[in-house]
């Protein structure tokens, strides 16, 4: 299929540039003989900070826990999450923003215990195992009474972000 699309562009629906997007995906495309262009992943989209701010503002008042995957091995998830927290901070005055991770420190259950009434925004592209199961379990373990928002990738505006990225490419 890709051979019929000589100017194909691939928009990785991932939150960070990591092993899959930088090594595995290019290798798989090369194995197929494809010269498709791999764009920056969803988590690096220049329109994403505004969407995160809009999401949090619409959710109402409260501190924010920005929850991401994290990793004991690669730093890309952590760095993308920390960068997002820094970018949105100036646009959410009066809110404390804490970052938390599922697979590295600081763990979500610990941060949620410190911010039991906060909003928790999963910094994930999809509602899959981590968002559907792991995050709610960690929040329950922490006695979290705040509001768990849908994963940022579930927002209807995401389609427009992807379309804009493809137009810019």
Structure description:
This protein has 169 residues and is of the alpha/beta class. It contains six helices and six strands; from the N terminus they run βαβαβαβαβαβα. It has helices at 19-31, 48-59, 76-89, 108-114, 129-142, 158-168; strands at residues 9-10, 37-38, 64-68, 97-101, 119-122, 147-148. Strands 4-3-5-6 form a four-stranded parallel sheet, with helices on both faces. The chain has a two-stranded parallel ribbon with strand order 1-2.
How many H/I helices?
Answer: 6
Give the CA-CA distance, first to last residue: 20 Å
Order of helices and strands: EHEHEHEHEHEH
Tell me, briefly, the overall form: globular
Low-confidence stretches: none
What Rg, in angstroms, do the CA atoms define?
Answer: 17 Å
Indicate the multimeric state. single chain
- β content, as a range? 5-15%
- Strand order of the main beta sheet, please? 4-3-5-6
Helix and strand content put the structural class at alpha/beta
Helix content: 40-55%
The number of E-state strands comes to 6
Query: Quick check: average pLDDT?
Result: 93
Question: How would the blueprint of this fold be written?
Answer:
Elements: E1 9-10, H1 19-31, E2 37-38, H2 48-59, E3 64-68, H3 76-89, E4 97-101, H4 108-114, E5 119-122, H5 129-142, E6 147-148, H6 158-168
Descriptors:
alpha/beta, two-stranded parallel sheet, 6 strands, 42% helix
Summary?
The chain is an alpha/beta fold and 169 residues long.
């Amino acid at each position: 299929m890709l051979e019929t699309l000589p100017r194909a562009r691939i928009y990785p629906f991932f939150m960070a540039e990591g092993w899959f997007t930088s090594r595995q995906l290019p290798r798989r495309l090369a194995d197929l003989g494809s010269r498709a262009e791999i764009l920056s992943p969803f988590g690096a989209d220049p329109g994403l900070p505004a969407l995160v701010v809009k999401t949090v503002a619409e959710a109402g008042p409260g501190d924010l826990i920005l929850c991401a995957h994290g990793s004991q091995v690669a730093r890309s998830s952590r760095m993308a999450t920390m960068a997002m927290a820094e970018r949105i901070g100036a646009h959410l005055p009066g809110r404390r923003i804490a970052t938390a991770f599922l697979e590295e420190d600081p763990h979500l259950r610990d941060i949620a215990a410190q911010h039991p009434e906060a909003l928790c925004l999963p910094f994930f592209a999809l509602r899959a195992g981590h968002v559907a199961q792991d995050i709610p379990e960690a929040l329950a373990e922490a006695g979290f009474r705040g509001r768990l928002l849908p994963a940022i990738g579930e927002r209807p505006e995401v389609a427009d972000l992807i379309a804009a990225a493809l137009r810019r490419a």
